[in-house]
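Pasting as-is:
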Amino acid sequence: MDMWSLACLAVLAVCLIWLSVVDLRTGYLPDPLQAALALSGLGVAIIGSPVGISWQAALIGAVVNGGIFWGLRWLVSRLKGREAMGFGDVKLVAAGGLWLGPWALPYIMAAGGILTLLGAGIASAILKRPIWKGEIPLGPGLAAGILGVFIAGLAGAIWIALTPFIPG
């Protein structure tokens, strides 16, 4: 792996781990960290993403991913009669779109949901008590999903397509 890819991976990992720790401790994903994640993702796309995301795909990813998550947040909140997901989760997925484009959203959502539930279940089993009463922080699961998809993209995983296949 070249130095640019390693540097991108390091920046992404540091931002996502930091956001995850803060979310687990406080239940919030702070805007300054989200801004750092988003700006670095856009910068990587402009300079040359090691996973092949153009700056145009990055911007589309932010809008599409954020829009879909905002719509999901709105719908589930209406169905539950209370806020179902924090706006920080919407911003996190939008920032992930800057790093990974719009095609990564299904992978991020699947990994985020599965890892959030697994993490809560394992922690509860180890502590022998439920660790959350009410809502479970989704940010760490989404962060792990974003990081995992980026790593899979770097590895050239054939099952993941971050850019659409256009025959030519």
